[in-house]
């Protein structure tokens, strides 16, 4: 995987990769940081898939990074709407809260989920992408019943 060589050789990045020890909260926070730095959760997810394909990070770490990248996109929305009107800030806050709740619900199940997904006959890099899609789909569908409650709360 020559595409990731420049990234993996940078000193600061090596420090970050060394900190990816399997601590689900730390790994998720680093995923959020990737999304904020790249200004895109999708870019962070694609980087994660590439690093997984290259064997630089483990599959459970990759899942945590994806969850964190989704949370990072919520933080980006909050930052982007900080100067907007109150309604826009409430929408961004609601999105962030839904992403935070989804993250807190799924993170304890990362290792069992990774073990189940390991059984699928697909490359780990593809599984990272599929996890990103299905995690967001399930999270959104699970939160629909709470949208009105969230609207009243905000």
UniProtKB/TrEMBL annotation:
<dbReference type="GO" id="GO:0005886">
    <property type="term" value="C:plasma membrane"/>
</dbReference>
<keyword id="KW-0472">Membrane</keyword>
<keyword id="KW-1133">Transmembrane helix</keyword>
<dbReference type="InterPro" id="IPR003841">
    <property type="entry name" value="Na/Pi_transpt"/>
</dbReference>
<feature type="transmembrane region" description="Helical">
    <location>
        <begin position="53"/>
        <end position="79"/>
    </location>
</feature>
<feature type="transmembrane region" description="Helical">
    <location>
        <begin position="24"/>
        <end position="47"/>
    </location>
</feature>
<keyword id="KW-1003">Cell membrane</keyword>
<dbReference type="Pfam" id="PF02690">
    <property type="entry name" value="Na_Pi_cotrans"/>
</dbReference>
<protein>
    <submittedName>
        <fullName>Sodium-dependent phosphate transporter</fullName>
    </submittedName>
</protein>
<dbReference type="GO" id="GO:0005436">
    <property type="term" value="F:sodium:phosphate symporter activity"/>
</dbReference>
<feature type="transmembrane region" description="Helical">
    <location>
        <begin position="129"/>
        <end position="151"/>
    </location>
</feature>
<feature type="transmembrane region" description="Helical">
    <location>
        <begin position="91"/>
        <end position="109"/>
    </location>
</feature>
<dbReference type="GO" id="GO:0044341">
    <property type="term" value="P:sodium-dependent phosphate transport"/>
</dbReference>
<keyword id="KW-0812">Transmembrane</keyword>
């Amino acid at each position: 995987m020559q595409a990731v060589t420049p990234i993996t050789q940078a000193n600061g990045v090596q420090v970050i990769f060394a900190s990816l020890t399997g601590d689900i909260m730390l790994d998720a926070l680093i995923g959020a940081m990737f999304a904020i730095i790249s200004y895109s959760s999708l870019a962070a997810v694609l980087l994660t898939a590439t690093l997984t394909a290259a064997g630089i990070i483990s599959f459970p770490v990759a899942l945590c990074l994806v969850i964190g990248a989704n949370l990072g996109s919520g933080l980006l929305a909050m930052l982007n709407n900080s100067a907007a009107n109150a309604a826009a800030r409430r929408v961004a806050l609601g999105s962030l809260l839904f992403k935070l709740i989804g993250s807190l619900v799924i993170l304890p199940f990362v290792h069992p989920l990774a073990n189940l997904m390991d059984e699928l006959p697909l490359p780990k890099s593809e599984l990272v992408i599929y996890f990103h899609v299905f995690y967001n789909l399930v999270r959104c569908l699970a939160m629909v019943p709470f949208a009105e409650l969230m609207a009243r709360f905000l």
